[in-house]
Amino acid sequence: MTDARLAGLAARLPNLRLLTDPADLEHYGRDWTRRWTPAPLAIALPGELAEVQGIVRWANEHGVALVPSGGRTGLSGGAVAATGELVLSLERMNRVLGFDAVDRTLTVQAGMTLHAVHEAAKEHALIYPVDFAARGSCSIGGNIATNAGGIRVIRYGNTREWIAGLTVVAGNGELLRLNRGLIKNSSGYDLRQLMIGSEGTLGVVVEATLRLTDPPPPSQVMLLALPGMDALMEVFALFRSRLTLQAFEFFTDAALRHVLAHGAQRAIDGEHPYYVVTEFDADEASQDAVLAAFEQGVERGWINDGVIAQSEAQAAALWRLREGITESLAPHKPYKNDISLRISALPLFLQEIQALLGREYPHFDVVWFGHIGDGNLHINVLRPENLSEGDFIKQCEQVTKLLADTLQRHGGSISAEHGIGLVKRAYLGSTRSEAEIALMRGVKQAFDPKGLLNPGKLFV
């Protein structure tokens, strides 16, 4: 702790944990992108709200940039600290603060993992419905910062729909209590919603009041094998018309190969170019409906094969084929694109982008998967062993520019659920107009006058 500024911070907040060990700096200074060399000043781990305020006020006095940090499972460089920032990790602030049975809300600290929130809601026979594969390590604060979506968006929507109130420390250290759990509140601008998806650039989320809901009815999980990309939207429309869908996820044969090599078990024999995992409400009517939908899909040439889980263990095994993809690809250091379109725009876009990627990435292994039911696609390009990381990223960024242009023509977004961060800031203009970006910069200035909260993220 040789830096005089850190010594002053430690003296001001004697119970604050400060880490400066090189291993800690590396661990807390990066997210899942692994593209930047971590170089934070130190890691601050507050244990209470007042310490967060103290850190932010100290940062203003000394001009030290702050990087708010949750589980660091993001894929856009939003939690990277590579230029001497102080990482402000909320992982110690991970408690349930209260449950309201009448309002059916759960108030938690921002450092709680999504899995811990699920378990806390379950204790009251309710659920917090936002869910995705990183549930065990991602934090609620990080979910809020990126408006995380996941595998249940088709039924429940994004994080935004489930935030009843927020407690936030703004860029000047001021404490803001936003919306306070109200269902109706027409008293001006909804600053709570402004914070959601702001990637830690406007304030540090320290507490959140989450809306809970009833558990869904019993469900069934089904895996489908499809003959081609054109069949994806046809099958989605068919199943959505016959069943109450909870999830509808797709992945390619390339994704399947990687997840099988990572330990998952094959569920359908043969080779098929596309697969869908879908989950739907299970009742007496759905049994006949799903068989009728499956038979119609086969007759029309949209479905090659399928299997319905007969137990919870089989359902989990089918879901592993989809949820295990990201982990299976991690050793290959993929270049990731996380894009979003209106569902109605997907068919034409998919044709264009398949041709684009085939033309621009002829020698690369490109792995597709995603939330087709809400228009969100994940495109992962795997780096060949004989290509340096720098050259690989350079080639990928050239194609991302073409992808961004294509998205702009189709009215899509370069970021669906992982934020802009460092990775996508050069392409923000493909999703937002110059006027919008100017207003966003003005909002940033209002909440963070000295520009110390997560600088360099979101905007170039």
Automatic annotation (TrEMBL):
InterPro entries: FAD-bd_oxidored_4_C, FAD-bd_PCMH, FAD-bd_PCMH-like_sf, FAD-bd_PCMH_sub1, FAD-bd_PCMH_sub2, FAD-linked_Oxase-like_C, FAD-oxidored/transferase_4, Oxid_FAD_bind_N
GO molecular function list: FAD binding; oxidoreductase activity
Highest taxon of source: Bacteria
GO biological processes: respiratory electron transport chain
Keyword annotations: FAD, Flavoprotein, Oxidoreductase
Domain FAD-binding PCMH-type: 36-215
Keyword Nucleus among record annotations: no
Stretches that traverse the bilayer: none
Pfam families hit by this protein: FAD-oxidase_C, FAD_binding_4
Signal peptide (residue range): none
Essential cofactor(s): FAD
Gene3D superfamilies xrefs: 3.30.465.10, 3.30.70.2190, 3.30.70.2740, Uridine Diphospho-n-acetylenolpyruvylglucosamine Reductase, domain 2, Vanillyl-alcohol Oxidase, Chain A, domain 4
Family: Belongs to the FAD-binding oxidoreductase/transferase type 4 family.
The protein, known as: FAD-linked oxidase
Organism of provenance: Dyella japonica A8
